[in-house]
Design goal:
alpha/beta; six-stranded parallel β-sheet; binds adenosine-5'-diphosphate
Length: 501
Amino acid sequence: MSTEDNRPETFRILLVTAEFWPFSKTGGLADMTAALAKYLARQGHHVQVLTPFYRCVMDHPDLPILYPVMERVPIHLDRMSAYVDLLQARIEPRLWVTFLRAPEFFDRPGIYEQIIASKRIPYPDNAERFSCLAQSATLLARHAAPPPDIVHVHDWHCAPAALMIKHLGWYEGWYEAPATVLTIHNLEYQGRFPAGKFWLWGLPAYYMCPDGAEFYGGVNFLKAGIAFADAITTVSPTYAKQILEPRHGWGLDGILRKRQFALFGILNGVDYEVWQTENNRWLYAPYNRSDLSGKQINKRELQRELGLPINDQVALFGTISRIEFQKGIDLILDVLPSLPPNSFQYVLLGTGDPELAERARKLSQEMPGRFVFIAGYNEPLAHRIEAGCDFYLMPSRYEPCGLNQMYSLRYGTIPIVHATGGLADTVIDESENPDQATGIKFFEATTKELHRAITRALELFKDAKRLQQMRIRGMHQDFSWRRAAETYAALYRKVLRRRLY
Ligand code: ADP
């Protein structure tokens, strides 16, 4: 199909990501790339996803039959070479997933890190591992027939591919090199390594400069992408503004300000085929916005499952999260002991920082019947927590987008959020609009403000009518991926058009 100016209406997109749900996931990156790929394909685009063949992918029960598309391809990483295979499967019409098999890099228990003496240590060869991914993406784009129009890379792991493709287009005779888009899911994670790791990319030294990949004497994978991608996106409009300021810029606000004409904030969506309260095999009972009785059953069954007293009159709070300082888990742990003892129950599900997790474990032992900490990663339980809780606590110090507050809204669970990044964009507080409120916001990430917000929630819990109204309003919110995927397609169109002039 063509537009009146003869440019294609649909695109061939190569999406490159270190995580892809359901095969590999540590956080929202996996959900986002899976949903974006699916909804772009459903809108008629041809989408190929390139992602590593980790051990968890190999062991995944839903792994489709894979066909090799390239075998024993040499990838030169400075003075060493890795031989990689590309294995492919079609998972929906117009949607292919291609796994990068390089056992020496990806056949490991973790995705990014290992646990040694209860400390989380990033794999020492992460620069090599993800340079291999970036180079493989570049190679795949160059040899694909027909080639992609767009290479969309996500986060630092594959950001150097944007530079590699630019370089080949400028100096190596690849005249039809695809346009590149980089999505930043979290600016804190940049892929910073000693300068020598720059040579892994096989590029000339002049890119290792302050306007390129160099960062305080080292190499910065994400910065290479920021400097050279045709467009940069981040996952909410508020975060797109925040990262231009030193406070949220993690040292990259300068180069982001330089490139702000190419920076866009596009709010992530929710895959409502996955996150739904009806036809959800993981829930105890289905429910919807016209009949919330099933939510009460989910609450009681969740209390039973967690070993909490079964009690409708007590407000049940929950959080599902990486246990990190960013997520404000420490603020929750500070506040819990000071709440009225018989008024609440709280469940925390997560993994992450061992010290913070240990604090949570100890506190949960001191607060039996009130606080349960489940250490680990458990997707079915995540759905049950979303469905069974009355309130969802998300006091993130910063939050590029955040997904769980949007899942909560759909599950009729009222989000309590620090108004930052995507949390500011997706939740409406009574102080902003009393008739449209969908949650409780607080405006400073402090123990005092969180305490105040939870106190407001406990008051709301006593007012059944207001509580019900707010729940139903939240359930009506529409953050579907259809809208977000259309916005990405419009951006691809813009980027391709701009390059043509
Ligand atoms: P981030 O990407 O910063 O971790 P997001 O809110 O964007 O945060 O996305 C987190 C995703 O990971 C959500 O889908 C959440 O449910 C999921 N998740 C995080 N920790 C766990 C866990 N321990 N068990 C199950 N799901 C989890």
